[in-house]
Amino acid sequence: MKKIRGSINSKYLAISIILTIVVAFNVFLYVFDKNVMPRAMELGSADMRAKAIYIINSNVQKLFKDDNIKYEDMVKIDRDKDGNIIMMQTNTVKMNTLASEIALNTQDDLREFGALGFKIPIGYVVNNNIIAHYGPKITINMRPIEDIKISYSSEFESAGINQTRHKIYLIAETKIMLNTPLLSRDEAIRTEIPILENIIVGKVPETSINIDGK
User: Fold this and answer.
1) Gap between the terminal Cα atoms of the chain
2) Fewest beta carbons less than 10 Å away: which of 4, 53, 118, 181?
3) How many C-beta atoms surround the C-beta of residue 119 within 10 A?
4) Distance CA 201, CA 164 (A)
5) Each residue of 180-205: pLDDT tens digit?
6) DSSP 157-204
């Protein structure tokens, strides 16, 4: 009789241990999903956005440096016989070619970096300074989900008597998806990069040039 009771007690003990483990595991998953993963996503999102913008900016700067692109390559200023500005024309063919090359190079670099991912130690995610660099790492991957859109804008500002500073900006926009083992979300990326500027002597007509959105 004692053996039977002992066997029953052992079974109850085993079942209790298993149930405790199952409950504890589910509680862990719940806490991990509701607290740890959102925090990891926030940290990873900030880093991935910064890296994506860095990749875009680097590609733009590299292309303009390697091709030695100058203001005169992008904008032609026509003057009358007295030296007054009558028209400013943008080299749309050159601008579109640059935009296509930058978009293709950047898209490839974003895919390559995104596949490697960004790893965050759990200790850092839970905001514990003692174990900030320890523990298993959560990997966050990134991939572009939209083609990169390149456009240009420009602005004029006074640079002294009868002088105007003309600045040209390149605007890059795309959308990326961030993935963790339990979460994913989309992030819009936009960066505006000053690429060229020039001091123009003489009065610039208000309708002389418009490259916005081109």
Assistant:
1) 91
2) 4
3) 11
4) 7
5) 777 788 889 999 999 999 998 877 76
6) EE-STTEEEEEEEEEEEEEEEEE-SS-EEEEEEEEEEEEEEEEEESPP
